[in-house]
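Standup notes, protein team

Yesterday: finished cleaning the Ruicaihuangia caeni set.
Today: Phosphate transport system permease protein structure.
Blockers: none.

Input for Phosphate transport system permease protein:
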Amino acid sequence: MTSAPARPARITAKKRLGDRLFSGGATTAGALILAMLAAVASFLVLQGVPAVTADPRDMSILAGHENFWTYVWPLIFGTLWSAALALLMAVPLSIGIALFISHYAPRRIAQGLGYIIDLLAAVPSVVFGLWGANTLAPAVQPFYTWLNDNLGWFPLFSGQVSGTGRTILTASIVLAVMVLPIITALCREIFMQTPVLHEEAALALGATRWEMIRMTVLPFGRSGIISATMLGLGRALGETMAVAMVLSSAGVVTFQVLTSTNPSTIAANIALSFPEAYGLNVNVLIATGLMLFAITLVVNSIARWVVNRRKEFSGAN
């Protein structure tokens, strides 16, 4: 009976100083991100819990509310509602612009339009807020009146139209413009990475350009579109100054988008209320920030789960 041949000794590559430094730096950076996230979460929990458990009568910011949850619920609703309206307008337009740049526009026009989109992402939010409050709101107010007169039977367009145009719909339009360059830039890069073999195969089989895009480009970029949308959603959920400058809020829960009675958002409410807050009132605002942190975490977790369900494919498979 012969013995099994001895396994050759495993050769380990010698790590150079640069390899060790790079590996250690990458590991430290990854651990630092987790530590920062844990530190932010710990701060929000430790500072926010006292506001949830304290007597509402001890906090002036909760005047007129039974408890913390009746105060924060309209803010949560306003945050989600404005972000949803913004994505409803921004995502189809972003995908259309990205497809035009990547597959339809001549090269010179595509490059110029790409630069404009990237430049739009660098505009400060306060500029968007000034534009929304002083230019957009007065301009769209007649259109809101027309919507109410002709489509007032629809619940979203019912109610007394705002005379200033500073409504939740105006704030959502501003948010849509702000997240548009983020979603467009990411979708453009994803669409341009579609394997050429897939596109040429679809065209060779007699597909039109739109059919080729529908069968190859969009399925290839589906996970990327979801990721880009979630990044845009994160920007819309956390936007502060633009919403605070445009929206005329009343702290209510309503689906009407043309009236002057609008729900506020968590970020805008913190920015407007924090300068005058003191004592436990500060803890209340921090607790609302904890709600926003939890919403963002849940939304991104759902997006990651959706993206991971679909395997990426390339020209090789």
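Follow-up from PR in the comments: Residues 312-317 have pLDDT under 50 and may be disordered.
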